[in-house]
Amino acid sequence: MAPRVRLVCFPHAGGNARLFHGWASRLPADVELLAVRYPGRQERMDEPCVETMDDMAGRISEALAPERDLPLVLFGHSMGAAIAYEVALRLEDPAAGGPEPALLLLSGRVAPHRTRATALHRAADDVLVAGVTRLGTLGGDAYAVPELRELLLPVLRADYRLIETYDRQRPPVLRAPIVAYVGDRDPGVTRPGVEAWSELTEGDFTVRSFPGDHFYLAPREAELTADIAERLARLPVARPA
């Protein structure tokens, strides 16, 4: 079956595309899944990490240029939600050409104009790791292994530098509709902060919560992907000319 929509997924700080490894088998055959591989990890381990939002979003937007032959839906978790929003802004710019994103799915992230300033990227290693592990069950196990900790910490610190230096006090409003997802026991995300994404779209806005912490999407993968599949099926999308 030929795909009718392309779902582009953005991982969290310190994360990688493996987070979405099981999604393709759970989504309908007419949904093509792309998972963003940030520099500095997996097959791109030899590349320097990207440490600014403008650089990251700019690179991804350029990389997506040839992928716009199908309608795009962007899903981002935590830091990835902020990156997805910034990529959507660039794809909605008339100068970019091509169709605009059909939908944004933003998970585990407060709207940029409601975030609290933090500086974990400047903290000692133990403090940085503690800041991640407090968020939930997916965040900390690898950092307990000395060899993995040494490998992963530079990536985590670079990602935190990117998201903690990202500043959008008056963020632009998108035309694309937004669905915001959140774990109901996420210690790092407030419900009002999530609902503030409604101020950044001219389209429809929905909030959907799942049981769990900041990394609810791992144990709730089946429920989350089912919800996403249902929303994609309802999209009035057509293949771009």
Automatic annotation (TrEMBL):
Domain Thioesterase TesA-like: 8-233
InterPro entries in alphabetical order: AB_hydrolase_fold, TEII, TesA-like, Thioesterase
Any Pfam family matching the protein: Thioesterase
Keywords assigned: Hydrolase
Similarity remark: Belongs to the thioesterase family.
Name of the protein: Thioesterase II family protein
Origin organism lineage: Bacteria, Bacillati, Actinomycetota, Actinomycetes, Kitasatosporales
